[in-house]
Amino acid sequence: MGVKGFVEGGIASVVAGCSTHPLDLIKVRMQLQGEQNVRPAFAFANVGAGCPAAELAHQKVGPISVGIRVVQTEGVSALFSGVSATMLRQVLYSTTRMGLYEILKEKWREPGSKPGNLPLVKKIAAGLTAGGIGAAVGNPADVAMVRMQADGRLPVAQRRNYTSVADAIGRMVRQEGVTSLWTGSSLTVQRAMIVTASQLASYDQIKETIISRDIMKDGLGTHVTASFSAGFVAAVASNPVDVIKTRIMNMNPKPGQPAPYSGALDCAMKTIKVEGPMALYKGFIPTVTRQGPFTVVLFVTLEQVRKIFKDLNF
């Protein structure tokens, strides 16, 4: 595969990431919804002023309502807040994981077997490895993306108002130190390992099963079915870690005050104690509705890019 595999995966990932960005933003807003029980934070701007904390604690807003309110209170463009960070994240994270996954699949297949034909256990191992490395590389962009997506829901005085991903990363380094770029990195790595292993491995496995059992031919229908199935598996497996990761990355303690959470376990325990165990599946619907289209766009685009680059060697 070489460099070509990384380039192909990167292009497909950027297209998929940008096209599903509004759903990702809604997911982040929903994951932070209810966190006002730890510190003031709402799903969208201008909500909660003058409302008792107890009343706010029981408010549950669905993905459609969140999307509508974001547009009403912040404008249509707010749905694409942090899209520059998404692009950088896809370039760093997804380019790495997609390229490494294909390299490992090729390296670990049995001599004489068909290209890409690998036992499920080895596919999962390839996904875990590729996802972990990709997440470590892309964490700075991930932190910037979460903060930019969540910014609009805060009171005006508390907003960070990053103008771009470069501004976000630059200010984090100046104000919080270089290590702030890897805030929540352990969670990012864990989530990426789970997502990559479940998404890529299950896609390959489901597609191979459909084709081998003559349920459908190797075409768009098979790709769409395998993609949505893989997206659902990835969403179920990764959502709890994703909620905790989002809250850890979005921490913005005032000078001289302790952070809301001391770590991932503390965040999980406080979230469950205050909001209940199902709080770990906040944003699940937009996660599923994003993972499906994201995976479809990702693999359909990837196949087209591969056709374009078929005769190129680099």
From TrEMBL:
<keyword id="KW-0346">Stress response</keyword>
<keyword id="KW-0496">Mitochondrion</keyword>
<dbReference type="GO" id="GO:0006839">
    <property type="term" value="P:mitochondrial transport"/>
</dbReference>
<dbReference type="Pfam" id="PF00153">
    <property type="entry name" value="Mito_carr"/>
</dbReference>
<feature type="repeat" description="Solcar">
    <location>
        <begin position="4"/>
        <end position="107"/>
    </location>
</feature>
<protein>
    <recommendedName>
        <fullName>Mitochondrial uncoupling protein 5-like</fullName>
    </recommendedName>
</protein>
<dbReference type="GO" id="GO:0005310">
    <property type="term" value="F:dicarboxylic acid transmembrane transporter activity"/>
</dbReference>
<feature type="repeat" description="Solcar">
    <location>
        <begin position="218"/>
        <end position="308"/>
    </location>
</feature>
<keyword id="KW-0813">Transport</keyword>
<keyword id="KW-0677">Repeat</keyword>
<dbReference type="InterPro" id="IPR023395">
    <property type="entry name" value="MCP_dom_sf"/>
</dbReference>
<dbReference type="InterPro" id="IPR018108">
    <property type="entry name" value="MCP_transmembrane"/>
</dbReference>
<dbReference type="InterPro" id="IPR050391">
    <property type="entry name" value="Mito_Metabolite_Transporter"/>
</dbReference>
<keyword id="KW-0472">Membrane</keyword>
<feature type="repeat" description="Solcar">
    <location>
        <begin position="118"/>
        <end position="209"/>
    </location>
</feature>
<dbReference type="GO" id="GO:0005743">
    <property type="term" value="C:mitochondrial inner membrane"/>
</dbReference>
<keyword id="KW-0812">Transmembrane</keyword>
<keyword id="KW-1133">Transmembrane helix</keyword>
<comment type="similarity">
    <text>Belongs to the mitochondrial carrier (TC 2.A.29) family.</text>
</comment>
<dbReference type="InterPro" id="IPR002067">
    <property type="entry name" value="MCP"/>
</dbReference>
